[in-house]
Amino acid sequence: MEVQNLIDLSDITREELKEIIDLAGKIKANPKDYMHACDGKLMATLFYEPSTRTQMSFQSAMLRLGGQVIGFDNPQNASVSKGETVADTVRVVSGYTDVVVMRTPVEGAPLAATLYSKAPVINAGDGGHLHPTQTLTDLTTLTYEKGRLDHLTIGLCGDMKNGRTVHSLIRALAPLEGNRFIFISTEELQLPQYALDFLDEHHCEYAFASDLESVMPELDVLYMTRIQRERFASLEQYEAQKGVFVLDAAKMAKGKEDLLVLHPLPRVDEITTDVDKDKRAGYFKQTEYGMYARMALILTVLNKSGKKEEIEVPDGVNCHCHNSRCVTNAETYLPQLTYAKEGKTVCTYCDSPIEE
Ligand code: NCD
Hints:
The chain is α/β, with parallel strands linked by helices.
């Protein structure tokens, strides 16, 4: 049996994704039927970065399936604080458990972990790069609250540059027919080039806006995001971007009657609390869908995936990727993994171009 990792949603087929979303709906409707589905199974949560929803929804998902959970939520309490590498931590923990869930500020670290893990690895967010299980949550919410994943005009507002939830969501929705994006942000926080390239490759229509109010009437979905303070070089740079886009009841009045407002949470000041009582505010429901989506994912991964008997890491010169947040800069023993895109060599860990 192959090991089924989930580093990006592209690791599974469209059909498998649909099956997971369908299963999430079934579990939500009849949770008791799944109470023992993971009896005797153990999940590790390695959280190198703060998290409330992702961590607790993964933990409650596994516990509700009858499985058990071990892990850390503060790397200061784990051997990483003594200088242990990701490779060693994962090699050991995956020997104890059946599935490893990892959140980290280091881009590409979950992919690096797959090379050394005996058990399947699930990416619960890596730096500003990807967050596939938030996207699974978002797609599940859209499926059940909006009734479709295609022919949608989606406004993405806030931090397009550093928001990993945005990057993963674009990868999932851009290939689907009739979807159109409007990116509402300051110039400084616009999407990275690789995300724009992805949209172009998929011939997906998109536009940029610097004002939320004026685009409100066009939107089927508004996906608000937090300005990612922890990814800024200085507090001054963050302060300059904070509070530029705020959704309030007055702006909601300009939106369609069937608009759906989503937010991966936590919110800071980008949605005022008077929006919470609007029936179009879907962000708290979204958190519950997240737990059912993760239950469906864990169950699918454990049913499909075996564990490796031996770990065979490819040799290779280490690559010093020019992205300072890339795992290859922190963990210099890693083999070089690249792919070619439009004549450029791209780092497989973090998807940034490597300048030769
Ligand atoms: C997001 C994250 O961690 O990227 N939160 C989450 O997983 N629900 C969004 C954020 O932190 O802004």
